[in-house]
Specification:
Number of strands: 5
Number of helices: 0
Radius of gyration: 17 Å
Strand content: 35-45%
Helix content: under 10%
Oligomer: single chain
Distance between the termini: 30 Å
Length: 71
């Protein structure tokens, strides 16, 4: 087996000077509603269609990264 022990993990900084992070989830929350963006996704039975990451680095907003999830 190839078990990984979390205590053997090393910290890696991917971006420095990050001053803000926001996640958003796009999809249908309830049957019959139009899809929209949500700050939280609470539906364990259905994944959102899109996930958006908004970053602020050194007080400057970066372009949003939006990813479509495959079903």
């Amino acid at each position: 087996e190839n078990d990984i022990d979390i205590q053997d993990a090393e910290e890696t900084i991917l971006l420095s000077d990050v001053t803000g992070v926001e996640w958003a989830y796009f999809g249908i929350d309830s049957v019959g509603e139009e899809p929209e963006w949500f700050d939280e996704w609470d539906n364990p039975l259905q994944s959102p269609s899109l996930i958006r990451l908004s970053l602020t680095i050194r007080e400057a907003a970066w372009p949003d990264l939006v990813v479509r999830l495959s079903n």
